[in-house]
Each structure stands twice: as C-alpha cells, then as structure tokens.
Amino acid sequence: MPKNSAEVHRSLQQAALELFRERGYDQTTAAEIAARAGVTERTFFRHFADKRDILFDREASVQAALTEAIASAPADLAPMQVLLLAFHGMEAIYEDNRSFSEPRQAIIAVTPALRERELTKIASMIAVLASALEQRGVDAKLSTLAAQVGTAAFNYALMEWLDDTSSGLGAHLDRAFNQLFLLSSTYESGV
Amino acid sequence: MPKNSAEVHRSLQQAALELFRERGYDQTTAAEIAARAGVTERTFFRHFADKRDILFDREASVQAALTEAIASAPADLAPMQVLLLAFHGMEAIYEDNRSFSEPRQAIIAVTPALRERELTKIASMIAVLASALEQRGVDAKLSTLAAQVGTAAFNYALMEWLDDTSSGLGAHLDRAFNQLFLLSSTYESGV
Q1: Does A162 touch chain B if contact means CB atoms closer than 8 Å?
Q2: Is the Cβ pair A152, B153 closer than 8 Å?
Q3: A contacts of B76 (beta carbons < 8 Å)
Q4: Residues of chain A found within 8 Å of residue B189, distances taken between Cβ atoms
Q5: Mutating which of B185, B187, B188, B189 best tests the A interface, going by the most A Cβ atoms within 10 A?
Q6: What is the ipTM of this complex?
Q7: Distance between CA A159 and CA A55 in Å, rounded?
Q8: What is the pLDDT of residues B55-104, one digit of tens each?
Q9: In chain A, what are the helix, strand and coil shares in percent, each to the nearest 5?
Q10: A144 CB within 8 Å of a chain B CB
Q11: Which DSSP letter does residue A39 get?
C-alpha cells in the first residue's frame, strides 16, 4: 500500500528508534533504517540529512514557533509569563509525538555524541528565546537569564511528563514554573 | 630574576591573553606563548596541557570546592540557599583572578571552539552541582533544575560583575539570586 510523505517520515522514525534500541545508535546505518521501513535509501535522504537528524528534526520548527509566540505575546506580560505562554503553545507538537519522545530520550542518554548534540540544541534554544525576549525590550543579560531558567523549567516539565502519563504536558509545565518559584523564593530566609 | 612556579603560571596566562587578543586564539601557538613569557616550551607544558587549558585551568578546582561546600552546608538549608552559599565561597578565587576574567571572556566570545568548550564546562558544572544536591537527599530531577537555575544565576552574576567594578562578586551574586526570585514570582499573575 503506497504511503504518503508524512507516513513515510513516521515509518522511518519508528524503524530508526527500533534499530537504535536493538543494536545501538552507532551500529545502525541509514541503509538499515530505510530497509526496516520498507523504503529505498534515496527516500531516506529525501526525509533526513543523516541518521542523527531523525532525532532532531523538529528543532527548527519548534524554535520558529517559539520565536513567533514570544513576538506576539501580549505586551504587558513579564518575561517568564511570556515563556510559559510560548511553551504552552508547543503542547500539541509534543503530545502528537509522545510515543517517540521516550525511546528518543533513552537513546540520547546512552550515546555520548547524541548527548553533545542535545546540549547544543538546548544552547541554541536558549539563544533563540533570549533573542526573542530582547526584541521585546528586555535587557540583554536578563533575557539570557530568563531564557536559561525558562528552558530549565521546560526540560524539567518534559522529564516529568515522560515519567508520568497521568498528566498532560500543559499541567507539567505549570507545575515546573511553580517549582521554579518555590525554589527561588527560599533563598532569602537562610543566607 | 628567577620566578617561582605560581609567578611563571601567571606570566604564561598573561602572555597567552595578550597574544590571543593581538593575533586571535587560533593563530597563537604554545611556543609563542612560552617565548612571550620568557620561558621554554617545556616549562609551558609543565603548567598547561595545551593553550586551551590556559583558559580553563581552574575548572577542576572550582568544581571540587563547590562539591565540598555543598556537602558541608547546614542540613536545614533549601537547595537554592545551599547553592548561593557555595557560590559565595568561590568569591576569593574569582576576585583574585579578576584581571584575567575580562580578556578571557572576550576571547571566548569571538572563538567558536572556545564557546563550545565553555558550554561543556557549564554542562559539567551543572552535573556536579546536581549530583552534590542529590547527595543531600534532594530529588534527582529537582536537583538538576536547581543546578541549572543556580548556574544561570551564577553566570549572570559573573557577567554583571565584569561590567560593574563598583561592586564585588558577592553583591552581584545576591542581586542575581534576587533577580531569579523576581523573575519566577511574576509568572502566576497573568497566565
């Protein structure tokens, strides 16, 4: 049965995650992923630049969506409100790809080259968020601080969401930002 | 006049920062740094593994000092209080090396390979802080969140301190943690 482009894309991702889990990331080739998905290698390379790209293919679209959400957020919102609003806008993308997120995270955790790539992705996301906040008139250093702190909360929410299927990402985002508030509000009393 | 080991170490750092500024990091060799400092190349390599090491030589000692400070902090302190206390313990190291910090930061900002190395250093510091908090019984994910947020505040304080010579690092640390509190406490009202 012929598949459309989005189905082929998903089949390749599914095949890649299976093979990465079975053999390890380094031991899997693009050709093997294509074969498992029942397509040619040429088709593989129409969808992905290389096997690593399979695990990071949403990076550019997520960054673009966050930038757009920050730019169009109401003018009276404070930096962390803007970030929380922008992260809430990503819920659908993440919920739709929930079944890939957990095996993806597991492969990254055991593959040093992918952990490096993940760090670069996080650094790039922080730079994008900081720049978008600065465009709203927030001081440059404060924008970087807010972007780092917001990204930390976002990643905390993602980890909690992967461990706890009983709540959606949105609830975990709210909890993460509340956790941030609780953490930050304790420093005064003792030091 | 013969110099002691600490003086030679400083001379090499000073010579390296001068040459990096004059020629750029990539265009400077270890031999040239040694020559500028008036020592042999062999002496250079007794002090530093390579030219990059000159800019990152305090990493291990800072991490060890932070780990020790977190382990020995009073048991009743909350995670962010523990981190602020540990960062305050680093003030003397940073104040003593103030004159190197600014040119160091400037070289890193314009050299992609060094920015990568700096990111790795920050990731490593976050891992060390998170692990030290976990040793105190803090939940693993919360330890990572606190370590990321605390490190963001620490780096914010360092940047402010480099720009503003009128206050010491200690005052900038307190302000950074207060800034964190102000940022985090705004999210509730609007979203």
Answers
A1: no
A2: no
A3: 190
A4: 78, 81
A5: B187
A6: 0.87
A7: 17
A8: 998 899 999 999 999 999 999 999 999 999 999 999 999 998 888 998 99
A9: 75, 0, 25
A10: yes
A11: S
In one-letter notation, the amino acid at residue B92 is: A
Q: What sections of B59-111 are H helices per DSSP? A: 59-71, 79-88, 91-96, 98-109
In this structure, what token pair is assigned to residue A188? Answer: 């005064």
CA A128 to chain centre: 13
Q: Are B123 and B144 in contact, with CB atoms under 8 Å apart?
A: no
User: Is the minimum CB–CB distance between A191 and chain B shorter than 8 Å?
Assistant: yes
B19 contacts: CB under 8 Å, gap ≥ 6? B28, B32, B33, B36
Output the pTM of the full model.
0.89
In chain B, residues with a C-beta closer than 8 Å to the C-beta of A120 are: 119
How far is the C-alpha of B133 from the C-alpha of B127, rounded, in Å? Answer: 10
What residues contact A43, with CB distance under 8 A and at least 6 apart?
A8, A34
